[in-house]
Fold:
Amino acid sequence: MLETRLEQLTACRAAALLRQGEISSVELTRAILERISAVDKKIHAYLNVTAERALTDARAADARLMAARRDGETPPPLLGVPMSIKDVISTRDVVTTAGSRMLENFTPVYDATVIEKLNAAGAHLIGKTNLDEFAMGSSTENSAFGVTRNPWALERVPGGSSGGSAAALAADEGIFALGTDTGGSVRQPASLTNTVGLRPSYGRVSRWGVIAFASSLDQVGPMTKDVRDAALILDVIAGVDPRDATTVDMPAPNYLAGLETGDLRLTGVRVGAPREYFVKGMAREVEAALRAALAHLETLGAEIHEISLPHTQYALPTYYLLAPAEASANLARYDGVKYGARADTPGDVWDVLRATRGRGFGAEVKRRIMLGTYALSAGYYDAYYLKAQKTRTLIKHDFDQAFNQVDVLVSAAAPTPAFRIGEKIDDPLQMYLADLFTLAQPLAGIPALCIPGGFGAGLPIGLQIMARAFDEAKMLRVAHAYEQTTDWHTRKPVL
Ligand code: GLN
Structure:
């Protein structure tokens, strides 16, 4: 008898059981579909559940698993495991909306590279998850298709923009997921839902086929139930892609193998605690959890150092200039002619264009386009965009200096636990502050991940670990040691 319910399995464990013939992919896929039927009315993690196709794929996987067992061959690492994909990542023949009316009927004719890679590793799609429109937001309230609720407290947000993926995992409506992270959208929802979210180094993972928000910041990242799964999914999706010129041709180590030494000691590992990440607006229980986590890392043998990242306070204004500037350029294509659902309206081409963009985009997307267009306009470019680019270099420099002194940096992932639905939606500045701890790493191009790090008043609190660019392995090792010697990640919400 299996000790856990099928829908609670991690990807690593599910794949092992599938290989051994202990469970079938059809059973596993059905268990997820049943769980979705039972709880997604409350949560709304999914925009689209591809049930029939998932079962067809599961049957094919079972046949391949059986053949592999018969022939004594090792099947691909995720054969038979279902995956939940943020609806900003293109999936062939499956509508991909980016959470926007603009793309309500967009059916891609190709898969994103990350989907191709996951399919090649044997995983199959089970559904597309909800998000803030064009990944702009921190609560999933900006979706054109309704909010997603936090499984830990249904009146609260699951974070964003990858809130659907995070909520699906927290509610065991999925085994593993993908999100995208421009300024925290993988890590902040992980923090609010007691799940794991990993943002890779810029250039580690291909964005080909991912609907662009801010191209110098966007990255695809694994969202999982534990650290080993994050390593496994990163192993599958990492690597250079000739179709994305920003990917780096640098060998990726086997991240999962790196965790399988069984050694959970962190003897001699230098952990930096950046002083500037202890801010006034931070919730008391978040600060307490962070201090306890640092003390715990010390008991594992790590050396804790106080570190300074002096330009931290500029990360938020810098990000909210650069990201909207890039968004305004990326979203120019949605005019109802080149891309997007064209508004049916009388008049000339300008009337059509105005109506298309007026109806197709929600309030937050329009706000970003206006902010970005303004920051890039003649006369303001030097004062805003150029200055922000220079500040970005200073922020990166802070991290370069820090990583000369320590191996990883540890901070909170979000200043507060999950907030209430509606609480910040009319106050963009308050909403932007939810990203306080997750904006600097994308600006610097470094990897960071968020893991379960405690609870306050019944709500999850995430712990963030950052590393030097392309040093995901070190960050994973520290995360794994912390996770395996604590039990936060084993806690589940009652639904
Ligand atoms: N919350 C941030 C924003 O609204 C980050 C979003 C993201 O990472 N996609 O821009």
The pocket of glutamine is lined by residues 135-138, 161, 180-185, 213, 323, 435 (CB under 6 Å). Residues 382-405 form the longest helix (24 residues). The longest strand covers residues 448-456.
